[in-house]
């Protein structure tokens, strides 16, 4: 009988169907493993962890852990919610809160379901109000501010922001890589809350809040209305003192700059140039022999004695012979030789 059945299988069943039939037969008879499969564990609990406090305009990230009936635990992705506006939480558990008038306590809740069982976990989070300093027009009108960053992955980024007395605004930027610079224009104003409002062509409106102010720098919070605001440190600029300038300086990129007392000078930069120089409204203006013009804004980190600069740190804008923007090269740190 066994031989006849084998003949029937071989004659009428393709190999793939034969294998499937044998697998079903072994499973129904308890074969293939010597026992039944282990049932899935049931969800028995949910816990969450993350910061219990954060500041407005900041973020905090939360995670959830499920407990199972087999005494195991695992990280899960729950449904997140927060019970109070204007705080919001993303599907990934990142809590964010924009401007608030006073400290706010919210409840963050995680909900997770598995196998028909639903568990929740909750945590109270205190969001603290940031005390800001009101801007005044005198703080920014006619002033320029410098910023530079050296990203962790390498490179260099710099900005020069100029607030003109007529409420126009100019922003010069430089980034390397890719070694490019640009200029953007707009307007500035101060709202009833003392926030600085920047409207930049092609970019939109930015709200700037002042967190700290000293004689050399400002710490600000910039909100573009689309995401988490950025905290920046702006270095103030100061008028160039022409009487302290004459001498030879070495820049951090190896360029040598010589300023003669008679208003002439030379540099080894870009193959070497001669120039004339003068100080106009506190800005050092350099006219190269090619007709190009450099504007140097001295930064508050510059150092000097009563008679000479020992370190002249500047932001460097270059214009074409016709006065159009040519390039912004970021910061130059010059040390007297």
What is the gist of this entry?
By secondary structure, the protein is mainly β. It has helices at residues 2-12, 15-28, 137-140; strands at 43-49, 53-55, 59-61, 63-68, 73-76, 79-82, 88-89, 94-96, 104-114, 117-128, 143-149, 156-163, 168-176, 180-190, 196-200, 204-213, 217-223, 230-238, 247-251, 256-259, 264-267, 273-280, 283-288, 293-299, 303-304, 309-319, 325-336.
Describe the protein.
By secondary structure, this protein is mainly β. The longest helix is centred in the first third of the chain and has 14 residues. The chain folds into three domains: 86 residues, Immunoglobulin-like; 102 residues, Beta Barrel (Lipocalin); 95 residues, Lipocalin, CATH 2.40.128.640. It starts with a helix and ends with a strand. 23% of the residues are buried. Helices cover 9% and strands 53% of the residues. It has a 17-stranded antiparallel sheet that branches. The protein contains three helices and 27 strands. Strand 25 and strand 26 form a beta hairpin.
